[in-house]
Write a structure and sequence with these properties.
The protein is an alpha/beta fold. It contains seven helices and eleven strands. This is Secreted protein.
């Protein structure tokens, strides 16, 4: 065997070993990443979850608002990547209590019954105003004594939360906004930042973020800012309404 042939065989063997090692490292990294996502979303292989939404009030038939439907599609990709299975359920259908399976609750809390119930029970420090007879201040949030009014098409807010009731319970994720475009923005923020959120709050941690969607009339759900982490005031008991103050700037 010539030296050239030996060199070629050695090079080929080294290449094969390198490729195998690289594939093994990549596979191990992908498995760890998938396992972290499964823990964060509470979606182990073969598990069940439920996506809860409400009907489009402008339609005479059962349909989902466009932005809500797109938000659910984004969540469906997460569920599939985790190897879990999803059920879509209307908000006014009798469902079991939370904790037995992961739940994604998306919608307008002034019209979404289950979402309103979750906010009342799990986020007692948040008040969502139904508005007066003319619709003024409909969907306004009050958190920690500060009002967050919607300015449709310009400034709109949405709550993004991950909540649990015990170490062994599955999480419930809330995307509760002032307009459908904000629900989609919140879900996109959750999906894009899932690794960072998992590192910051832990696999079993609860959080509630107040997000602001800016100029949705021009940019849709793309321009999103984190106003504040409102976990502490949102999960605290609501204070006297008389002490609520209006924000200096209606964010």
């Amino acid at each position: 065997m010539t030296d050239t042939l030996q060199d070629l065989i050695a090079s080929a063997a080294a290449l094969i070993v390198g490729l195998a090692a690289g594939w093994a490292v990549h596979s191990a990294f992908a498995r760890r990443k998938r396992t972290r996502e499964q823990r964060f979303f509470g979606l182990p292989d073969g598990s069940e979850c439920v996506l809860v939404t409400h009907r489009d009030s402008t339609s005479a038939h059962w349909s989902i608002p466009r932005h809500d439907a797109l938000a659910l599609l984004g969540l469906a990709s997460v569920v599939e990547n985790c190897g879990a299975h999803a059920e879509v359920a209307p908000h006014d259908t009798g469902l079991q209590g939370f904790g037995a399976r992961t739940e994604f609750c998306v919608g307008d809390p002034t019209a979404h019954r289950r979402l309103a119930a979750h906010i009342s029970n799990l986020l007692p420090g948040v008040t969502v105003h139904p508005g007066d007879d003319s619709g003024t201040d409909r969907g306004m949030f009050t958190i920690g004594g500060t009002h967050y009014r919607p300015d449709p098409g310009a400034i709109e807010h949405v709550l993004l939360a991950r909540l649990t009731v015990g170490d062994d319970s599955r999480p419930v994720f809330l995307a509760a906004g002032q307009r459908p475009v904000t629900h989609r923005a919140a879900v996109r923020h959750l999906v894009r930042n899932r690794a960072r959120l998992a590192r910051k709050y832990g696999a079993q941690g609860s959080f509630c973020l107040l997000l602001k969607v800016v100029n949705s009339q021009a940019y849709g759900p793309d321009l999103v800012e984190v106003v504040a982490d409102v976990t502490k005031p949102a999960t605290a008991s609501a204070g006297p309404r008389a002490t609520a103050k209006t924000a200096a700037k209606d964010d």
